[in-house]
Design a protein that fits this description.
single chain; mainly alpha; Alpha-Beta Plaits; 3 domains; two-stranded antiparallel ribbon; 5 helices; 44% helix
């Protein structure tokens, strides 16, 4: 797998697509970034026949990079959240920029941009996608997933503690109401 994490294969990441191929749930011709060369490699690896790239998954083409028109960027951070390999940097209400050497060309940042300031560009000098690039993209994707899982766990812990505190406070309120009700009207004055 090329490790672009583009989801064009119909799966949320390259690993899920690979697992679907192994389990027989997906064909080997659903990866546009891998293209026909990738299909040939998967065919050799799996023993399945090499099929043409499924056009429903997209077209094979040169590697592209995301480019942000920083003058139009409003700093919404939606592109940062969408990037599976953390190749976009910036802060809330500040302009963002793409780390070109980390961008996999997945295009996932384009659609969520509310001001359409992200374009996919083909560099003048064609960029080869090497096994080293795939390994780097994979490790960045895994690191991002782990960080997100940690954030989700922290949020669940905060929510749980907040829920526990709300229950404690509600029990205290009920006890106070009960005491006031047992005292009678003249003792409440």
């Amino acid at each position: 797998m090329p490790q672009t994490q583009c989801t064009r294969c119909g799966y949320p990441c390259c690993r899920d697509y690979a697992e679907a191929i192994v389990s027989g749930q997906a064909n080997i011709n659903q990866c546009p970034p891998g293209g026909q060369v990738g299909i040939q490699k998967l065919s050799a690896l799996t023993g399945l026949p090499a099929l043409p790239l499924n056009p429903l998954n997209g077209q094979e083409g040169p590697r592209q990079l995301a480019w942000i028109d920083e003058s139009r960027c409003i700093g919404c951070t939606l592109c940062i959240k969408a990037c599976p390999v953390d190749a976009i940097i910036g802060g809330f209400k500040f302009m963002h920029t793409v780390l070109a050497d980390q961008c996999t060309g997945c295009e996932l940042c384009v659609t969520p941009c509310p001001v359409n300031c992200i374009d996919m560009i083909t560099p003048i000098a064609p960029l080869a996608w090497t096994p080293e690039d795939a390994a780097t993209a994979k490790s960045r994707f895994i690191a991002r997933q782990r960080r997100q899982q940690g954030l989700e766990q922290a949020q669940q812990t905060v929510t749980t503690k907040s829920d526990q505190l709300a229950k404690v406070l509600e029990r205290a309120r009920q006890r106070a109401r009960s005491r006031i009700a047992h005292r009678g009207p003249e003792s409440a004055e």
